[in-house]
């Protein structure tokens, strides 16, 4: 504040001084020594008295009797006559006497706390007066300041002399300084408590302390100590009283307030230690408590605003982000672990994982400023919890992909399906047992291709491309082979149609996929079981004639037929499965059958038979009537042909109720994966030992872990080593049982 006053008043008085110098030059012609008055004791004395009176008038705020130009010229004349040292000494003494007289008004001021504000105002008025008086005096004695004082480096300027005298005789007085600082601290505390204070008064007084170079020693240390005490107590109290979101907003508001104080009246040098003190007491001391009390709640409720604020606040505290990072990692492991480890949630497991991943991605992008450390921690946490339950997540992800790629999935467009597959691949990357995924995915892909249930060939190939990019060509070679087999089967199908025509058989459509699963699809009006058996034999001979060395395996559950049927409404075509065909063909002989009679005649397994009867008698298209009525099929139920059946379409597709994958099928697939893993371990062991010849047990196990791409337990490795020793592929060292040798 003092500097502002000095700048403004200097501008005024400098202009005045220039005009004074200009007028004096015209009257006295400074460069012409003949025009100067003769130096005598009386002249010197009279001139000093005139100057002293002017200074006293300025200090007492009374009018100056003399013209300012005349006073300026008088100082210049005295300096020209080499009396500058005496003039400087006398001027300093006059100023010092005046300032010494000012101290009494502060020492005698009442000490009541109610008078602290008026004390500060009086101190500020005294300081403002002193600054303006010093600037006025300096303008008169400017010639002295710019010549004699400037040439003597040991002498302070007139302005600095004024500051030194004020500091020495007023501010450095112990009682006065203490009361001034306490008054300022009291005003700041009131403002922190929500009261309105005179900021311009505080700005002026703190500017005074800064100009007098006592700011740090007299004020800043005490201010920071009081700040530390205030916020330490406030932090302890509010952590007990408020929830975390409210507390975070309070801390943010407090930091904004303190920054505003620095801008408004505190010295800029105070900002760094002040903010550090607030952050330490409100954040650093309660960092763990904040995270334990509120982080999981903020993440559960997806409080983006508060999470962003939490990240910004903790980033200012030493070690804050690392502590937040660890708590963030622990949350992901815990929440994700609950999803994966709950068998009752298996149906929703993959979707919940995708939703959880989306949510965590959103938090890292919006709240954590895409910090690489947080992104990597999230990936590590996902990889950790998703592999705590071996094999099952990989199996469920494969089934989830199957549900999305099946025909009839109307949940997503092609673009949305592509985005879903991309998200699935992100989850897929975290899985260690990718061979489990491959086994189930391959089985489901075969089913989709065999029965023509694939939603889109482009989507299938897109998924294969993603898997190939992620795991390599070897991972997808068998899967890609299935599509090639589907193309080859079209040619076989054309050739077999010709064979059927030559044998005067009903048209038989034949498909094969990867030489693993074959189906026969009958299109006929009335084909008895005996005719089907005969057709199977013809099909078998034809296929084995084309492909020697292969085994033809029939999949009756995958067959379907189109039956022409007559109802009262008229003729209809029913597109049904092979099992539904066998059941419906029975009603050509009789109008009513019991469950036992149907079972005996068709030989269909009990569970499959009940699902077949349900689809025909309990679904949307009820071509059979069940007695008694109900959704479930019991052994005592009877069925008769529904001649009153009506439908707006001519060809009606009756969907077979699909049986979910049985436990036996799951176990069988898992066992195949386990067997494949054993072969891979054996092959890796032989490769390593063949190359190294001799290895210790620990080094051999270490090499195996580096080569194997699936998780394996040390006990399983030990069993495979023992198996190879028994089969004479390797042997133990006779002296050191932990040493192995390759047997050529």
Keywords, separated by commas or semicolons:
744 residues, three-stranded antiparallel β-sheet, 11 strands, ubl conjugation pathway, alpha+beta, Cullin_N, DNA damage, DNA repair
Structure write-up:
It contains 30 helices and 11 strands. Helix 1 (2-28) packs across helix 3 (68-80), helix 2 (41-59) runs parallel beside helix 4 and helix 12 (244-264) packs antiparallel against helix 13. It is of the alpha+beta class and 744 residues long. Strand 10 and strand 11 form a beta hairpin. Residues 392-617 form the Cullin family profile domain. Keywords: Biological rhythms, DNA damage, DNA repair, Host-virus interaction, Isopeptide bond, Phosphoprotein, Ubl conjugation, Ubl conjugation pathway. Pathway: Protein modification; protein ubiquitination. This is Cullin-4A.
Calculate the mean pLDDT score and round it. 81
- For the biggest β-sheet, the strand order reads 1-2-3-4-8
Overall structural class, as computed from helix and strand content, comes to alpha+beta
Distance between the termini: 94 Å
Count of beta strands: 11
Number of helices: 30
Q: Which regions have little confidence, pLDDT < 50, spanning 5+ residues?
A: 1-35, 506-528
The global form is elongated
- How many whole angstroms does the radius of gyration measure? 49 Å
Helix content: 55-70%
Q: Note the beta-strand portion.
A: 5-15%
What is the makeup of the main sheet?
5 strands, mixed
């Amino acid at each position: 504040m003092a500097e502002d006053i000095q700048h403004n008043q200097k501008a005024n008085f400098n202009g005045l001084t220039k005009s004074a110098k200009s007028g004096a030059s015209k009257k006295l012609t400074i460069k012409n020594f003949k025009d100067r008055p003769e130096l005598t004791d009386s002249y010197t004395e009279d001139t000093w008295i005139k100057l002293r009176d002017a200074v006293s008038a300025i200090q007492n705020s009374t009018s100056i009797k003399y013209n300012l130009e005349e006073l300026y010229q008088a100082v210049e004349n005295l300096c020209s006559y080499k009396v500058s040292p005496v003039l400087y000494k006398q001027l300093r003494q006059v100023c010092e006497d005046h300032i010494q007289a000012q101290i009494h008004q502060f020492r005698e001021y009442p000490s009541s706390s109610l008078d602290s504000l008026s004390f500060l105002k009086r101190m500020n008025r005294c300081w403002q007066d002193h600054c303006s008086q010093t600037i006025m005096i300096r303008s008169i004695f400017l010639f002295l300041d710019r010549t004699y004082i400037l040439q003597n480096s040991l002498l302070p300027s007139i302005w600095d002399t004024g500051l030194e005298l004020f500091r020495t005789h007023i501010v450095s007085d112990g009682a006065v300084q203490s009361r001034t600082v306490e008054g300022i601290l009291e005003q700041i505390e009131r403002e922190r408590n929500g009261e309105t204070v005179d900021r311009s008064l505080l700005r002026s007084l703190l500017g005074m302390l800064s100009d007098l170079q006592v700011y740090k020693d007299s004020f800043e240390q005490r201010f920071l100590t009081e700040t530390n005490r205030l916020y330490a107590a406030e932090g302890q109290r509010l952590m007990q009283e408020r929830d975390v979101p409210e507390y975070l907003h309070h801390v943010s508001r407090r930091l904004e307030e303190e920054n505003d104080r620095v801008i408004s009246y505190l010295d800029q040098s105070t900002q760094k230690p002040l903010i550090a003190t607030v952050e330490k007491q409100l954040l650093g001391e309660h960092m763990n408590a904040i995270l334990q009390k509120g982080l999981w709640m903020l993440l559960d409720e997806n409080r983006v605003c508060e999470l962003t604020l939490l990240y910004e606040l903790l980033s200012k505290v030493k070690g804050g982000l690392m502590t937040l990072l660890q708590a963030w990692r622990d949350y992901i492991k815990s929440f994700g672990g609950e999803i994966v480890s709950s068998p009752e949630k298996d149906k929703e497991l993959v979707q919940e994982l995708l939703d959880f991943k989306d949510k965590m991605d959103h938090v890292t992008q919006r709240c954590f400023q895409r910090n690489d450390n947080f992104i990597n921690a999230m990936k590590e946490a996902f990889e950790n919890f998703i592999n705590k339950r071996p094999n099952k997540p990989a199996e469920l992800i494969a089934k989830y992909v199957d549900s999305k790629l099946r025909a009839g999935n109307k949940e997503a467009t092609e673009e949305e399906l592509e985005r879903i597959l991309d998200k699935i691949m992100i989850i897929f990357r975290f899985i260690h047992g990718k061979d489990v995924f491959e086994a189930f995915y391959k089985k489901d892909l075969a089913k989709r291709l065999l029965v023509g249930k694939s939603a889109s060939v482009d989507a299938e190939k897109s998924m294969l491309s993603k898997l190939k990019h992620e795991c390599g060509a070897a991972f997808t070679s068998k899967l890609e082979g299935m599509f090639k087999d589907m193309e080859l089967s079209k040619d076989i199908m054309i050739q077999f149609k010709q064979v059927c025509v030559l044998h005067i058989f009903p048209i038989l459509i034949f498909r094969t996929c990867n030489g693993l699963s074959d189906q026969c699809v009958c299109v006929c009006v009335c084909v008895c079981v005996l005719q089907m058996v005969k057709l199977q034999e013809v099909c078998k001979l034809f296929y084995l004639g084309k492909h020697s060395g292969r085994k033809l395996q029939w999949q009756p559950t995958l067959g379907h037929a189109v039956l022409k049927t007559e109802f009262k409404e008229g003729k209809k075509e029913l597109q049904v499965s092979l099992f539904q065909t066998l059941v419906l063909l029975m009603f050509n002989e009789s109008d009513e059958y019991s469950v036992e009679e149907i079972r005996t005649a068709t030989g269909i397994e009990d569970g499959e038979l009940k699902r077949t009867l349900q689809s025909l008698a309990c679904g949307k298209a009820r071509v059979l009537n069940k007695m008694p009525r109900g959704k479930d099929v019991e052994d005592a139920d009877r069925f008769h042909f529904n001649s009153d059946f009506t439908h707006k379409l001519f060809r009606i597709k009756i969907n077979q109720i699909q049986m979910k994958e049985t436990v036996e099928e799951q176990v069988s697939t898992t066992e195949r994966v386990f067997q494949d893993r054993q072969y891979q371990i054996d092959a890796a062991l032989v490769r390593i030992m063949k190359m190294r010849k001799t290895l210790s047990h620990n080094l051999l196990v270490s090499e195996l872990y580096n080569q194997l791409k699936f998780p394996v337990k040390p006990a399983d490795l030990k069993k495979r080593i023992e198996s190879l020793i028994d089969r004479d592929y390797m042997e133990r060292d006779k002296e050191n049982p932990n040493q192995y040798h390759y047997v050529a």
